[in-house]
Amino acid sequence: MNDRVKNRIFKACAVVLALVLWHILSLLVGSEILLVSPFDVAKRLFALLGEEIFLPTVCFTLSRIALGFLSGMLCGTVLALAAGRFKIIETLLWPYMLTVKSVPVASFVVLALIWLTSNQLSVFISFLMVLPIVYTNLLDGIKAVDKKMLEMAEVFKMPFLRRLRYIWLPSVKPFLLSGCRIALGLAWKSGVAAELIGYPEGSVGEVLYYSKLFLNTADLFAWTVVIVLLSVAFEKLVLFLLERLMKGVESL
């Protein structure tokens, strides 16, 4: 049995243990409003899958958070490349990136509700949370490139594609992938939090808001499970496509 299989078995055991502890705690609490059991959550989750509102609600939130993430990643990449090439751009962008990283998400949500409609809220907030992470990580990767290797490439007039393949990508790739992993999780957390505050019609945030309002803990936990599954699946897909893209560039 290799280490990868062992790791998966250990993770599966950890999940089972967590569910057992959850069930024991729900029995000790003895109140479905305070802590519903995992069995009730599972039943409610399967019931949600058959409801008409489930797929449109998921698509509403998924499309907006995906748009916010992709636009934040694209903008962060472009700005990082520009800042890596021109020091003055990095200096000019510094106060904006510092502000976005430092200001709480709730403050941006309140401001965004003044400027935008609630339907656009999760796109804007996800974009704002992703932008500085991708920008900072990618810029660090650009700065980590070996300057002596670049000088050697310049002396021997190495073509741009070879420089990209053998010098830039090996340095930038781990920084970009790490930034995307962090940004993906934050995009979902901030996007759903924005929907919960603005509760646009037809969103996951709206159903979470009404679950809290009517003390429907089973719905709250079931939709939370849906969010986690969507977040994990979206992260796997984005990282897979990004790695395939980089492998495609490396093979040029």
Could you explain the architecture of this structure?
It is built from 10 helices and no strands. With 252 residues, it is mainly alpha-helical. Helix 3 (54-85) packs antiparallel against helix 4. It is globular. The chain has 2 domains: 1-30; 35-250, MetI-like fold, CATH 1.10.3720.
Structural class: mainly alpha
Q: pLDDT below 50 for ≥5 consecutive residues: which ranges? A: none
- Number of H/I helices: 10
Order of helices and strands: HHHHHHHHHH
How many distinct domains?
2
The amount of beta strand, in percent, is under 5%
Distance between the termini: 37 Å
Largest sheet: none
The CATH homologous superfamily of the largest domain is termed MetI-like
Computed CA radius of gyration, to the nearest angstrom: 22 Å
Helix content: over 70%
List the helices and strands and how they pair.
Elements: H1 3-29, H2 38-49, H3 54-85, H4 87-102, H5 105-115, H6 121-143, H7 147-155, H8 160-198, H9 204-213, H10 217-250
Helix pairs in contact: 2-10, 3-4, 3-6, 3-8, 4-6, 5-6, 5-8, 6-8, 8-9, 8-10, 9-10
Give a short synopsis of this structure:
With 252 residues, the chain is mostly helical.
Task: Spell out the key features of this protein.
single chain; 252 residues; mainly alpha; MetI-like fold; 10 helices
